[in-house]
Design goal:
6 strands, 113 residues, 3-stranded antiparallel β-sheet
Length: 113
């Protein structure tokens, strides 16, 4: 929502939020969350507009977030993914994530930075 976008744009804390632009259009966003709650390992999340999928944008955004996490002192990052989301799982594995099954349809991946 507009209110949520304004809140993130004016956010100050340890967590990290970013957007990916293509010209003047927002085509994706990423986040590293959990530091504000005291976790040593941040949770990474991304979302991309379907129009840019398959063009390397996800990999570029993930690498940017990994670099940001390292610069902020993280030694690992984690993420959750639906076990049926094969393209995302393949991307995450290619980046070095190791997955552990969880309850339901969710996998948790960890990456050593």
């Amino acid at each position: 929502t507009t209110d949520e976008a304004a809140a993130r744009a004016n956010y100050s804390g340890r967590d990290f939020y970013c957007i990916m632009l293509q010209e003047d259009n927002v085509v994706g966003y990423g986040m590293l969350r959990g530091w504000d709650e005291g976790y040593a390992i941040p949770s990474l999340g991304i979302a991309l507009d379907p129009s840019v999928r398959g063009r390397g944008c996800s990999r570029a955004l993930m690498n940017f977030l990994h670099d940001t996490a390292k610069k902020r002192g993280a030694t690992k990052v984690r993420l959750k993914v639906d076990s049926r989301n094969r393209p995302a799982i393949e991307l995450y594995r290619s980046l070095g994530y190791v997955f552990e099954p969880q309850t339901g349809e969710e996998l948790v991946g960890l990456l050593d930075l």
